[in-house]
Sequence to fold (197 residues):
Amino acid sequence: MTEPVFDWQKGFIVDFALTGGLSATAVSTRRTLSQMRGMFADSEACEKMLTSSDPVVYEFYELGAPENAGDVAFGTSVTYPGRVGNEYFMTKGHFHTILETAEVYYTLSGEGGMLVENPEGETAFFPMTAGKAVYVPRRFAHRTVNTGTAPLVSFFAFRGDAGHNYAAIETKGYRKLVIEGEDGGIRIINNPKWETT
Ligand code: MN
Fold:
């Protein structure tokens, strides 16, 4: 393991894609399908897939930003193409521990969208395509969904001390699912597993 060498006091430059070159010291975290058991609506399809392989669903590169309000944490997220049943591969998603903090995602390549929801029940799905940025507002949980056939790569930045709260999403799921319809189109439907308690 190489220790990150980013200088948060004096500044630094880094390769934008963070997948090589100057960014060789970024730390990658990978999530495989077996680590996401129960997060896809079709558990049966999930278990069936896992009998033959355990694909990487997504990974992200982090630079170890100090967890200060005045620092900016950033990195890249790669969500791979695929489906579990008719539900597209996606990230776990999270609220920020400091709920009142926003985040920006800039899409480098691939196609998909950002599924968001707040505790009050408002939801939205913002398309993500190369060259476009998504602003995830304060209070909204966010999850990247790959609806295409290539990896969906985005660059993100948020307040250094925002923190990640995965628990709420892991226990309740999202209110909405992003699935491929029978005609091959993208559908946003209600999550039959979502519970209010
Ligand atoms: Mn976030």
User: Anything to note?
Assistant: The two ends are 42 Å apart (CA to CA). Residues 27-195 form a domain with the Jelly Rolls fold (CATH 2.60.120.10). Residues 94, 96, 103, 142, 158 surround manganese (II) ion (CB under 6 Å). The chain has a mean pLDDT of 92.
